[in-house]
């Protein structure tokens, strides 16, 4: 794998201190995209908008490039993405890419690929798993000896998961793969983690939107009165409508919830409730939302 020249940007000033308690809410509610992977060398016509979580690229017989948007520190987050990916004749991948510091390892969750399945040959098969969304992934590993890495030239393990029914949009629960790989020596000292496009041959193009971490669901709507509201599930967002925030039961348990009325100028946490969702326990109390404020709901 190549050496890594990356661009990182800080989170918006003040945001990191907004959700001070509990720590689990603070960590997840501030889980904004803050990392640009740009090992490119002008090979990919890479254009990105970090704030919007979007990027695009096109290539024609490139050397190896790795580009993407994500996080400076990886985690077992759930990542939502959508892409237009055209690479049928190209050696390329669309998916999640990152590194672990100790033991040093490089990892991929390949959602779609061009002409080459990286688990097809020259690797050690680890079988397959069924992910949280029902998709089947082929698992494999490979040892890279004296190859470029995030610390210079080193020897490290590559961990791969390749989706058997390819797709270009969806939600990836990284915990599924970290758990499976951990049985084969995968560590938990995470370096960066991005939704990536990589290519090393042929031609193609991609346009990608990174939806952020699905471990933090967030929505906003201007409150029309001093009454707080109910959060109703939809395919895209939660829409406040009445006096109590109600969260749909997610597919996996979450430990706690924060509700924050937000003005246009600042963000302030006004209530935190312990919340363990089940099929019947999906609501919790909340403060009133002052008229004209934006109500934001988070679960983590």
Automatic annotation (TrEMBL):
Pathway: Glycan degradation; xylan degradation. Residues 1-20 form the signal peptide. It catalyses: Endohydrolysis of (1->4)-beta-D-xylosidic linkages in xylans. One of its GO terms (cellular component) is extracellular region. The active site is at 106 (nucleophile), 198 (proton donor). Keywords: Carbohydrate metabolism, Glycosidase, Hydrolase, Polysaccharide degradation, Secreted, Signal, Xylan degradation. It comes from the Eukaryota. Its main location: secreted. Its EC number is 3.2.1.8. Residues 21-211 form the GH11 domain. It is found in: Secreted. InterPro entries: ConA-like_dom_sf, GH11/12, GH11_AS_1, GH11_dom, Glyco_hydro_11. One of its GO terms (biological process) is xylan catabolic process. PANTHER family: ENDO-1,4-BETA-XYLANASE A-RELATED. Belongs to the glycosyl hydrolase 11 (cellulase G) family. This is Endo-1,4-beta-xylanase. It comes from Friedmanniomyces endolithicus.
């Amino acid at each position: 794998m190549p050496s890594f020249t990356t661009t990182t940007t800080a989170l918006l000033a003040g945001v990191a201190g907004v959700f001070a308690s509990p720590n689990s809410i603070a960590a997840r509610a501030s889980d904004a995209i803050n990392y640009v992977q740009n090992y490119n060398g002008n090979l990919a016509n890479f254009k990105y908008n970090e704030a919007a979580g979007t990027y695009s690229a096109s290539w024609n017989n490139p050397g190896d490039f790795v580009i993407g948007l994500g996080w400076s520190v990886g985690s077992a987050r759930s990542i939502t993405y959508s892409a237009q990916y055209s690479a049928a004749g190209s050696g390329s991948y669309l998916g999640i890419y990152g590194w672990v510091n100790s033991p040093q390892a490089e990892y991929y969750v390949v959602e779609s690929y061009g002409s080459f399945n990286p688990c097809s040959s020259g690797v050690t098969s680890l079988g397959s798993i069924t992910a949280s969304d029902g998709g089947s992934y082929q698992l494999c590993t490979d040892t890279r000896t004296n190859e470029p890495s995030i610390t210079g030239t080193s020897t490290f393990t590559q961990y791969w998961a390749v989706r058997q029914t390819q797709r270009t949009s969806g939600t990836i629960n990284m915990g599924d793969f970290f758990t499976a790989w951990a049985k084969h020596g995968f560590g938990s000292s995470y370096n960066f983690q991005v939704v990536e496009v990589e290519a090393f041959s042929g031609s193609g193009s991609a346009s990608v939107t990174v939806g952020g971490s699905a471990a933090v669901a967030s929505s906003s709507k201007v409150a029309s009165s001093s009454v707080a509201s109910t959060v109703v599930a939809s395919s895209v967002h939660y829409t406040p409508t009445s006096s109590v925030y109600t969260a749909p039961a997610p597919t996996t348990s979450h430990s706690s919830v924060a509700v924050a009325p937000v003005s246009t100028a600042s963000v302030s946490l006004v209530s935190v409730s312990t919340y363990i969702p089940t099929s019947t326990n999906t609501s919790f109390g909340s403060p009133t939302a002052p008229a004209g404020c934006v109500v934001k709901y988070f679960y983590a």
